[in-house]
Amino acid sequence: MNKNRYIIGELQEFFAKNDSSKAINSISTIMNSIRIQSKVIGSVKNPNCKFTCLQVLQLLVLFPFFSIKNAANYSSSALGKMFVCHKDMFYRFMNDGNINWRRIIYSVFRQVYSRVKRRTTLKSDIRCVIIDDTDLPKTGFKTEKIGKVFSHTQMKPILGFKAMFLCFTDGVSQFLLDFSLHGEEGKRSDKPQGLSKKQTEARYCKEHSEDKCIARRSAEYFASKIETAISMLKRSIIEGVRFDYLLVDSWFTCFELLKFVVSRHFGCHLIGMIKMGKTKYETDLGNKTAPELIKALQKSKSVKYSRSIGYYTATVSAKISGIKVSLLFYRRGKNGNWNALLTSDLKLDAKEAFRLYSRRWVIEVAHKEMKQNLKLGKNQCRDFAGQIAGISLCVLQYNILSYVKRNESYETIGGLFAEISKNSVELSVAEKIWLLIVEVINVIAEVLNCDAMVLTEQVISNDKQIKAVKQAFDRLTPAA
């Protein structure tokens, strides 16, 4: 067996013998099929480490499925008893600025999605990519680059980071392709990033070589999100990803993104929410803002009710700096507020545009599921490289879960995660109970001045419950 995959192979064998759930068997199967070359990872194996870089990566990906919160809890877990190693091995790997996490994520995505395409019977799926950001709150000031960012959900500055994700969906499954980590410089020169001098001095600082991957990540930290989003899209196209629509909310809908999308040679379009603000659009009704346009459309009785989506709708053709677009207005009920979508696809009607844009919510669901089940943003590494590694691992775990969800017909990622972790939690409990029993027997044997092993065998032979715990613990040890 390939030495880089014996970890997953032994897990497959272990869970197969114990008649475990189909979910964790599927996790093992897909992970065993994924090929990642050492040059893709980018890190160099530590001479004193018995595991290869790929094996360390595999173990890190398995953490949440075995209820391991972080590397410090690894040695006391069921997985830690099967593959013994020290927590420092994981921290060294995660803090390595040479690891090319983007290449790893794309490599795994291509392999997983190729399996999806081979299994699907739908050949004309509309493919969409979605860009959105989310808050990653933190509680301590010692993390590298930490600062305050404005939270649009809490409507106030919070300590933490902003993570921007690029998501791919074909209408059935969704996979995360890329992400960037951002901070905000703040408005006050005497409080950079919203921190006091004492708080700034408490932060961990580290110099990064310009040729390392982490240096490029650091350069994105204060960069424009629109520029970074365009870079993400360029990178996805280079990696072979093709999409029909880019879906964004009103914060990301702008001329720069529109211009980039319509200039692609493979024929993709933008669908984005627009603000009902003061931006003027060139139309046959004149140069008007969105609120002015809807008043003109109401006056001309161009507003229609769509039963299929339950909204009043109106459509108008417009131009933005010479680029032709359609503006589609929506209102729920007669007294609701008007919202509007902008699309570069002039053939889309209001119903189809609404249906496609509704896919944008899958990235909101992905954010929630990663935070709830995969502990997105809870990484306690003080190195910026460690923070990037933590989010990258969440992305890898989510993509694997997304594949298994589709393959095994689970309704939600949360339900799938619960089934996967159930068996590993039961093993961890059995392990702790057994170790406690062994400790008690050793104390009794010392008091009675007898052999602990003999006493253990006598106790087990006379107690079915203890024997069952012992058998569960024995199953944690892989076959030689």
TrEMBL record:
SUPFAM superfamilies cross-referenced by the UniProt entry: Ribonuclease H-like
Gene Ontology terms, MF aspect: DNA binding; transposase activity
GO biological process: DNA transposition
Annotated ranges, domain Transposase IS4-like: 239-400
Protein name: Transposase, IS4 family
Organism from which the protein derives: Phocaeicola coprocola DSM 17136
